[in-house]
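Can you give me the bound-state structure? Components:
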Amino acid sequence: MKIFRSAFIPLLAVALALLAGAALIALSGASPVDAYLALLEGSFLGTEKVPWTEAVGRTLEKATPLVMGGLAVAFAFKAGLFNIGGQGQLIIGALIAGAVGYGFQGLPWIIHMPLALLAGSIAGGLWGTIPGVLKASRGAHEVITTIMLNFVAINLTDWFTSKVWREPGILARTPKIEPSAEIPRWGDLPIGFFVAVAFAFLIWYLLQRTTFGFEIRTVGLNPNAAEYAGISVKRIVVLTMTISGFLAAMGGAIETLGVVGRYEPGFNAGLGFNGITIALLARTHPLAVIPAAILIGAMEASGAIMQFKADVSPEITDIIQALMLLFVATPILVRWFFKDSQENDLSVGSGWGSA
Amino acid sequence: MSALTSRLYQRRWWIFTVVAIMGFTLFTGEFKEAQTTAILASTLRQSTPLLLGALCGMLGERSGVINIGIEGQMLMSAFTGFMVAAETQNLLLGVLAGIATGMLMGASLAGLSVSLQGDQIIAGTVLNIAALGVTSFFFQQGYTLPGKTPMIDLWFLADIPVLGRVFFSNRPITYLSLLLVPTIWYALFRSTWGLRTRAVGEHPSAAETVGISVAKMRYLNLILGGAIAGLAGAYLSLEAVGSFERNMTNGKGFVALAVMIFGRWNPVGAWGAALLFGYTNAIQTQFQFRGWFTDHPQFVGMIPFVVTIIVLAGVVGRARPPAAIGQPYSRE
Amino acid sequence: MNENQTTPAIEAIGVTKRFGPIVANENIDFRVERGQVHALLGENGAGKSTLVNVLFGLYHADEGEIRIAGEKVEMNSPHDAIDRHIGMVHQHFQLVPVLSVTENIVLGHEPTKKRGILDLEKAYNEVEALGKRYGLEVDPRAIVEDLPIGAQQRVEILRSLYRKADVLILDEPTAVLTPQETDHLLEVLRDLAAEGVAIIFITHKLREVMAVADQVTVMRRGKVVGAIDPSETDQAGLAEMMVGRSVVLRIAKGEAKAGAPVLTIDSLEALDDRAQTAVDGLCLTVHAGEIFGIAGVEGNGQRELVEAITGLRQTISGSIMLEDTELAGCNPREISEQGVAHVPEDREKHGLVGPHSVADNLALNRYFKAPFARRGIRQTGAINDDAQKLVDEYDVRTASIGSPVRTLSGGNKQKVIAAREFSQNAKFLVAAQPTRGIDVGSIEFVHQQLVDQRDDGIAVLLVSAELDEIMSLSDRIGVIYQGRLVAVGKAEDFTRNQIGQLMASGSTDA
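Here's the bound-state model for the whole set.
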């Protein structure tokens, strides 16, 4: 019953957002019914031309980096940190995975693929270590540093793809990865998705059952008491940001190795706020990230079909997501329905210098 | 040491920075008047949205509310300002629309964080995401403005070499932003509004005890700040660029927060910091012009962001924000 | 004067105030006459603060009415109360630390030149004059956070006087003062009363009620138990009214059997949060089986000293030896593992994690080692078994060991901390303000626990702002002043007055 109670708010938020989205669609001249029908077809049901397995496969494909991104943000939240650097960490992960993917020949798959995956993830993890260290040692607020690093990452990866690891030709992108580095599909279903799901369970276990997870949660709830209990808050901050970056980066690495096959700038547009939406929809619970990611993934997968069949610009999904975020993050719903104030509220701590 | 000398000594890092920058500028400008003027003028232009953003953030934070949503406010205002000006072919209406948008979003932030006691950082992030989504969805190509806001030369002052062209030959919003600096400084430190704002931001229950409504002060400050952010947005689309592009703020709202912190929540300090950051932007063009790093333009593009990080890491630990920021306040 | 004596300055009639299911004030009748010093006495949680908050407009009564000078009033905010010349001096000062004395005093009622511009010169002059008139002198331009606590309190009082208060409410005003400062304050209050101001004085200190009050109203569990003239009773009588049973005011404590030195501090130096010297070459020894009490006004380095001992604060120089081990430079966990137990001054901030369960909080100092964890995996069975044992042993009132600890009352929270710290076979225990903000029953319990620890041979360091607590529990006493111990000796060798003087000025020379 506790699950139902906790899920009520996000479900309500989603419903309200879809309703508001329908209104906006109607305002822009299209039919909401057609639009939402196209949404379902594009994500799960399939159309005359597209079998449903392919639709589901595409949805899960889109959902995979969202699961990882949502995990990354949710994990950081547990320690009271707001990691908005998912975008930067993701593209670094994607780039390095692509580089390792094409740079080594003749390796067996059993070595090459995990190597590329890990390399990308670790690189992104280090990209998360930077703001972690800055916060722990200098008190620099991670909201700004991670966003700044997003921009730096965009420039940096741009440079790498145009100058260092560039495929000969007009387009600035890395060469295709070796087949031995690819993450395969099982029919239409991307294996990468199941890797992501596995990590969701892993993170959940880490947080709930290990002493490390207990330390992270304690720091997030009361850093002073944590310090007094002998937990090094600085150490937890750095480790949490690193792991968070690792998770986000893995999403990008899986995208490169399992979907795109190389690194191309601009392959994942948007400022990486998706991870935040997912994490908040899931109320920062690692396992709830999975259904939230599938929902958003469904919307993204059906963008083309929505445009084609219902003449609706795909950016409507951005707005619906923004509305979902608005509704889920607003405490009013909590208070109105449950009358207990602080228990369910999400909070990211306060102030600029709080190391 | 006389009083003047000791004050100069206290500000020695600022003075060093200014001298170093002037030197570097003259060097890159090859000591030519036209180029030096161009760099400085560009600095002022690039600093304007940062200054306005920082002032917006300052009004909120001085009363105790963190405003992460400045980016969203600027973007949304740039959009509505542009659309209104394009539809009506009237730039002034566009500017007013931008200001009104900023105020509306400021009120939303106040509603979320003051009345509903939500987390301020999440509320601001929601505004940012919403702004990006809405502006991207509703923007259509094909609208044009009747030109940008006019360049106004201030009489003979504009003829002074270098400095004259930089300071006294500008467009209206730029002038307005310069005027806001002393105005807000005076209001913050010499008026009852300023005293009460600072009290609310440092120790809200003390203010409430003497009968000041913390909620009302925060609403007021966020709406006023929103107007200033709206002005910044209007500046971008109507004065600086002359059109709207998807995500045209590109992080300026966040850099503005670093400017605010670097300026120690003080309008004059914020102006200095904004000029510094504006300079890092202006330098980028100069690098291109001089052919430095042309093969690797990405590193030049990184400069403003890396500088922001360095500033944040270097300064924040020693800067003291208003004591009550980030915490929702309720009477019981 | 005579006709006014029948009309009370302020009066509460049948006031009831509820917070959800809790009835904080039930049918309260309370009257204060002009020029009367009226004490409001009761334990923590009796409802005294709630009542005065209703009088001050911070809360709105659910039933009943307030009358000022015989006239019924509706007050919706402190603004209304201030307009009606009611002033309040809060227990936790409601002053803005970074603003000046004058800015704090005139806040909300600022003298202005035209159009909202402050007239600071005029304000400075008015504040100076006000201070002289009432014997509460303070530098009008000083920044409040630079002032000592006694001066800050004067600013609080002046603020009410600036708004021409006829009724002055003071909430536990002497909690942070030395005995001498307390005497001075009580004198100021008598002077104000003589001028016709009605004084309402919340306290739980029986001694002060006997010393200064013309009338005392005793509250218990939200109701008024009685209103009498203190001269008709004594401290024990008042205590019995407060608690409803006869109370042991002083724990029966046997002779200490002091043993070898356990904690030896030598020339310790440490800085405070603002990088100023807080602990200044302090030396101290605590023996096994004794309670060493540190008396001192808050702000003289005791907090930093405790933080240095427990590893929460870095030291500049000097040493802290626990038997043969150097503690200075170790982190909190290492120190705790060496056998140091700590009851922290601010239990919400340092001692407990609110949303975590009672069980998790009880295991907070041991969660990482066997049997509570094996190879990094938490063993919830062991954690819960141990928690249940402790909850039973220490009589902690909670719905279950799984409830979040923030749902417990103050006294029970302190019991959780006590259970955690006292059950770990430490060699040395430091207890900072251990009975702050908890009910008399729990105070008795904690005091007894401290004495039991001592009798078990543990070295106990007690830091408290309650002089009575120090004097009744300690075997040896040290007075801390400006970062060092200015006097150390056996408890019975000190008089209250001496300690007071040492606390205030560092020496006993008048």
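A couple of observations. Residues 354-424 of chain C form one domain. Residues 179-194 of chain C form the longest helix (16 residues).
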